[in-house]
Amino acid sequence: MVIYLSDNPNLSLIAGTIVNVHTKIGKLCILNTKSSLDHDSEMADFSSLAPSVNVSGNVKIGECSSICLGASIIQNLSIGCHTVVGAGSLVLKSIGNYKQAFGSPIDTVKSRKANAVYLQ
């Protein structure tokens, strides 16, 4: 297994986390309890996976983005920078930068401001 960590691997991997092969994880990322990041996926700096999040293969998660409790993302998608994916969401399409989206299947609810408070 090969996991690529950035030059500053201040990383939080909490109990039960699964990180699969050829995965890239940026600076100060959090992978919370029982979250999974599958093969060939990337998490940019300061992004986070809440407990029980499942990320399939070849998914790109942008900088400062948060995937909330129990969300699932299918393969070959991208989540933009500063984007929040709501709890329990089923992500079947890519989401752009500065978005707030949730639902099953997911829908973009609103845009976020560049200086928005974390998770608002």
From TrEMBL:
<dbReference type="InterPro" id="IPR050179">
    <property type="entry name" value="Trans_hexapeptide_repeat"/>
</dbReference>
<dbReference type="InterPro" id="IPR011004">
    <property type="entry name" value="Trimer_LpxA-like_sf"/>
</dbReference>
<protein>
    <recommendedName>
        <fullName>Acyltransferase</fullName>
    </recommendedName>
</protein>
<comment type="similarity">
    <text>Belongs to the transferase hexapeptide repeat family.</text>
</comment>
